[in-house]
Design brief:
4% of the residues lie in helices and 38% in strands. By secondary structure, it is mostly beta strands. The strands form 6 sheets. Strands 12, 13, 14, 15 and 16 form a 5-stranded antiparallel beta sheet that branches. A 4-stranded antiparallel beta sheet has the order 3-2-1-25, with no helix packed on it. It has a 4-stranded antiparallel beta sheet with strand order 4-5-6-7, with no helix packed on it. A hairpin with a 5-residue loop joins strand 17 and strand 18. The protein starts with 15 loop residues before the first helix and ends with a strand.
């Protein structure tokens, strides 16, 4: 994964044999501990919820789900277009995602089994990075519909849409996430080319910087922990993208990964004990899970070109 997800090229394709391998027996042993040997806490991430993610194993961007222990892999979308940025509804019954299947990138919703497709946004704009409100009634997303990059909120039932962030922030195409209490949104932005993680109230007031302003430091992928205490994010600070966490107040930064190559796109488990993320540490981009302190890591997919995980709460 590059500095921004918008820059990921369309894959050149994989053989049918690779798709069969990735879907079959390999997944039974794919959760390989990278620290501490077999039987690690990372390998035992078998709690509630499913992980939705994007895979390019078949040569196209499609949405899949699997259990946190790497079993039960299931493909949900099958379209020549790109299906990206999956996000679970609070009750785990639906997944929002962005797709250009209608021409431009719009926000769509489907059931957890891939059924019941419904388009929520329309028009000649790039609408990406959906995230559900805690009550399941609204979805926030990033869009360039007014000529700049901003966050909007759409009502699930009425489709009424309103802008949240003020002009001039330049919200990056990376994860947008809702606070567990529903009062704020967290996102990455680069006003004047200085990247930082911010949060804002739903009426656009109370803009708060969570991280320091770091020019060209690749601050991306903010994800609020389900207990509301910490925010995970990706930063390019020492030559590589690594996963960090910080208190929601902006204090107490903790680095969780430290290795050559990018570790990106953190997603919290429902009980905050684990974090799913994307890494190329063993070759192509794949989905991994680590304990929330970063001490133990396990691998979930093998050679899938994985992207953009989202962990359901149920």
């Amino acid at each position: 994964m590059g500095a921004m997800r918008a820059g990921i090229p369309r894959p050149s394709g994989k053989t049918a044999g690779l798709a069969v391998i990735a879907a079959g027996a390999v997944l039974a042993v794919a959760l390989v501990a990278l620290a501490g040997g077999g039987g690690s806490r990372a390998e035992q991430a078998t709690g509630p919820g499913l992980i939705a993610y994007v895979s390019t194993v078949d040569g196209n961007f499609e949405v899949y789900t699997m259990a946190p222990d790497g079993t039960g892999r299931r493909r949900l979308t099958n379209d020549p277009a790109e299906d990206r940025f999956p996000a679970w509804s609070p009750d785990g019954s639906k997944i929002a995602f962005a797709s250009d299947r209608a021409g431009d990138f719009d926000v769509w919703v489907m059931g957890r089994d891939g059924s019941g497709l419904r388009e929520l946004t329309f028009g000649r704009s790039r609408d990406t990075d959906p995230t559900w409100s805690p009550d399941g009634r609204q979805i926030a997303f990033r869009s360039d519909r007014e000529g700049d990059n901003a966050i909007y909120v759409v009502d699930i039932e009425t489709l009424a849409t309103r802008r949240v962030t003020p002009p001039g922030l330049d919200v990056l195409q990376t994860n947008v996430d809702w606070s567990p209490d529903g009062s704020r949104l967290v996102f990455a932005a680069a006003p004047d080319d200085d990247q930082a993680i911010y949060s804002v109230r739903l009426d656009g007031t109370g803009l708060r910087r969570i991280t320091g302003s770091e020019r060209r430091q690749g601050l991306l992928d903010p994800a609020w922990s389900p207990d509301g205490k910490r925010i995970a994010y990706t930063a390019l600070r020492d030559g590589d993208f690594e996963v960090y966490t910080v208190a929601a107040s902006g204090e107490g930064h903790q680095r969780l990964t430290d290795r050559p190559g990018p570790d990106t796109s953190p997603a919290w488990s429902p009980d905050c004990s684990h974090i799913a993320f994307i890494s190329d540490r063993d070759g192509p981009r794949d989905l991994y899970v680590m304990t929330a302190d970063g001490a133990e890591v396990g691998r979930l997919t093998v050679d899938e070109g994985a992207l953009e995980p989202s962990w359901s709460r149920r």
